[in-house]
Amino acid sequence: MVVGQRVVLFQLIAVAVLVSNHINVQGLKLGYYHKTCPNAESIVWKTTYGFISRAPTLAAPLLRLHFHDCFVRGCDGSVLLNSTKNQAERDAVPNLSLRGYHVIDAVKSAVEKACPGVVSCADILALVARDSVSMIHGPSWEVPLGRRDGRVSSLNEALANLPSPFFNITQLKQNFAAKGLNMKDLAVLSGGHTIGTSHCVAFGNRLYN
Ligand SMILES: *[C@@H]1O[C@H](CO)[C@@H](O)[C@H](O)[C@H]1NC(C)=O
Ligand SMILES: *[C@@H]1O[C@H](CO)[C@@H](O)[C@H](O)[C@H]1NC(C)=O
Ligand SMILES: CC(=O)N[C@H]1CO[C@H](CO)[C@@H](O)[C@@H]1O
């Protein structure tokens, strides 16, 4: 379902507020890498632009990747972790349509080249989400940095935390409330996660049940 541009702009502001206000902001600060990796944010921007300028539709999956990461164990990059036994977050059913991992990998490599071992993957996810949304003419927002990467990624936790597309409204409200998110946040983050497309199986039942 492609959402109109005007709606996108309005909703994305709410996403920005949501991602920066409610989830994992303790101890984060703007310009966190100012001294340790001064070009980090411009490298992220430039590398992301290389992808989005050629494939603007990647902006939606990149925002969604950040959202899925934050919903499980906070914004700690755990959605990126692989597991040998296919038991990581990315192996959970809702991951099956996650896209954009290659962009994150490319950005991380570029940043590592400039400043090895300094910038966390979790911060890269947060910055790439912001930059790619602003590159498709959505709003921009400030991203306080300093997130630490997690070392744990669990399929079961992803299933337990991420809202299922089959939840009814009561369940959805409870699920979001457990993360400190309200009804407005719920509306903003539902569907194709604000921008982009969604598959019919994810919402057809609500239209024709
Ligand atoms: C995870 O697995 C994918 C697909 O096999 C691979 O492309 C990627 O580099 C791996 N990531 C890590 C962090 O090992
Ligand atoms: C939502 O689903 C739950 C769990 O299946 C059920 O207990 C509840 O009655 C449902 N609520 C509505 C409004 O359908
Ligand atoms: C994009 C991604 O990482 N998808 C993975 C989700 O989980 C399945 C099942 O384990 C993997 O095969 C996919 O690679």
UniProtKB/TrEMBL annotation:
Residues in coiled coil: none
Keywords recorded for this protein, A-Z: Disulfide bond, Heme, Iron, Metal-binding, Oxidoreductase, Peroxidase, Signal
Cofactor(s) named in the record: heme b; Ca(2+)
Catalysis: reaction(s): 2 a phenolic donor + H2O2 = 2 a phenolic radical donor + 2 H2O
Domain named Plant heme peroxidase family profile: residues: 27-209
Iron recorded as keyword: yes
Secretion signal, residue range per the UniProt entry: 1-27
Enzyme Commission identifier(s): 1.11.1.7
Listed InterPro entries: Haem_peroxidase, Haem_peroxidase_sf, Peroxidase_pln, Peroxidases_AS, Peroxidases_heam-ligand_BS, Secretory_peroxidase
Family: Belongs to the peroxidase family. Ascorbate peroxidase subfamily.
Chain's role: Removal of H(2)O(2), oxidation of toxic reductants, biosynthesis and degradation of lignin, suberization, auxin catabolism, response to environmental stresses such as wounding, pathogen attack and oxidative stress. These functions might be dependent on each isozyme/isoform in each plant tissue.
Protein's UniProt name: peroxidase
Provenance organism: Hibiscus sabdariffa
Phylogenetic lineage: Eukaryota, Viridiplantae, Streptophyta, Embryophyta, Tracheophyta
